[in-house]
Amino acid sequence: MFGIGMPELIVILVIILIIFGAGKLPEIGGAIGKGIKNFKKASKEPDEIDVTPENKKIGPK
To answer: Are 21 and 13 in contact (CB under 8 A)?
Structure first.
């Protein structure tokens, strides 16, 4: 995986733990999970179709 081995991943996780603290990790994980879920949902949905009518010029009859 991009040349990153287990020791590198452990170092990255320790740095994240030091920066954010143990209390914030569940919140960060939940936010990342929701973001991934929304991205997958948006990529599977078909494009929305704009059905608004065109503006017609209203003038004297």
So the answer is: no
pLDDT of residue 61: 57
- Other C-beta atoms within 10 Å of 50: how many? 5
pTM of full prediction above 0.85? no
- Kindly report the length of the chain: 61
Give the contacts of 28 (CB within 8 A, at least 6 positions apart). Answer: 20
DSSP H or E segment with residue 34: helix 25-44
Q: Using CA atoms, how far apart are residues 6 and 28, in angstroms rounded to an integer?
A: 21
Sign of dihedral through CA atoms 21, 23, 29, 32? Answer: negative
Helices 6-20 and 25-44 sit at what angle, rounded to 10 degrees? 110
